[in-house]
Amino acid sequence: MEIVKVHPALGAEIRGVDLTRPVDEATQKAISKAFDDNIVLVFRSQNLDEKTQLAAARMFGEVAVRVRPAGRDPGGDYDTPFMMVTNIIRPDGKPLGSFGDGEMWFHHDTSYYPEPHRATLLYSMKLPTWGGNTCFSNMYMAYDNIPRKLRDRLEGQKVLQIHDYLRRERLDLGKVDMTKVRHQEQPVFITHPRTGKKALYISRLMSARIVGWSKEESEDALAQLFDISEDPSIVYEHEWGLGDLVIWDNWCSIHARKDFPRDQERLMRRLTIVGQAMSF
Ligand SMILES: [Fe+2]
C-alpha cells in the first residue's frame, strides 16, 4: 500500500489496495491513520458493487441508515443505507435517486443533525465529460487562519446550522418556517473527537446565524469565516475518474460540487458513517 498526497493542505490517494478483496487488519489500520492524517482519501479505479462498497465503509465505522427528511420528499429509495446522487430522470419523470444537479455550495453533511455523520463515501458510476468536480477544504487550517481577535470573540459561541435543500443560496432567517427545516445549534469551533484538534465548523450553505449575535454582527463574522473556509490554499479539488471511491472526514472538512452539463448523466453511490454530537 502506498499513500500519495494529492494537495499540500489535505487529501491522499491510497494506491495498491483492491477494495473488492478483503483488506487485512494491518492495512486497515494504516488506512484509518491515513484518514485521520489526510482528511480525504481517494481510491482510484475501483470496481465496487454495493457489497464491496459497504465492506469498504465499515473500515471507518458503523454505516448510517438513511432518514426520511421532514417536510419534503426528494425521492429515492429508503430501504438501503445507500443514496444514489444523480441527475438521471427515470421514464416516469422522477429522478433515479436523490436529485443532484449542477453546482452546490460548501457544506458539512448533516451539520444540522444532533450527531453529524463522521464521514461520507462517494463512488462514481457515471460521469459527465467535464465538470462536477468536488472541492474539499481543511477546516483545521481554516481555524488556524482566523484572525486572533475574531477567533477570541467566537470561542465558545454556537452557530445555527440549517438544511433546506438549497444548493447555492443562503436561507433568509426572516422568511423561513423553522418547523419545516432541519436545524441544529453547533459549536462554531469543534474539537475533533478522534484527533483532538480544533476545527472551524461553519459553511456558506448551512450556517445561518451565530447564536445570540445581532444579524449585522453575525453576517459580518460569517462573511469573513466563509471566505477563510474557502481559501483556495486550503482546498483540494477532486477531478473524478470512473470508479473512484472518495471518503472525507465530515467533521474537519467542508465540500462543494462544481457545475456540470445538465444534458449529461452523472451517477454517484453514497454511504455515510454514523457520527456523534459535536463539542467545543
Ligand atoms: Fe454533501
Summarize the structure.
The chain has helices at residues 25-38, 50-58, 139-145, 148-154, 215-229; strands at residues 2-5, 12-15, 40-43, 83-86, 98-99, 104-107, 119-126, 134-138, 158-163, 182-187, 189-191, 198-200, 207-210, 235-238, 245-249, 253-257, 267-273. With 280 residues, it is α+β, with helices and mostly antiparallel strands.
Describe, in plain words, how this protein is organized in 3D.
With 280 residues, the chain is of the alpha+beta class. It folds into two domains: 2-138 and 234-273, Double-stranded beta-helix (4-Layer Sandwich); 139-229, no CATH class. It is built from five helices and 17 strands. The chain has helices at residues 25-38, 50-58, 139-145, 148-154, 215-229; strands at residues 2-5, 12-15, 40-43, 83-86, 98-99, 104-107, 119-126, 134-138, 158-163, 182-187, 189-191, 198-200, 207-210, 235-238, 245-249, 253-257, 267-273. The strands form four sheets. The protein has an eight-stranded mixed β-sheet with strand order 1-2-3-15-7-17-4-5, with helices on one face. It has a four-stranded antiparallel β-sheet with strand order 6-16-8-14. A hairpin with a 6-residue loop joins strand 1 and strand 2. The protein is globular, with a radius of gyration of 18 Å. 42% of the residues are buried. The mean pLDDT is 94. It binds fe (ii) ion (FE2). Residues 107, 109, 255 line the site of fe (ii) ion (FE2).
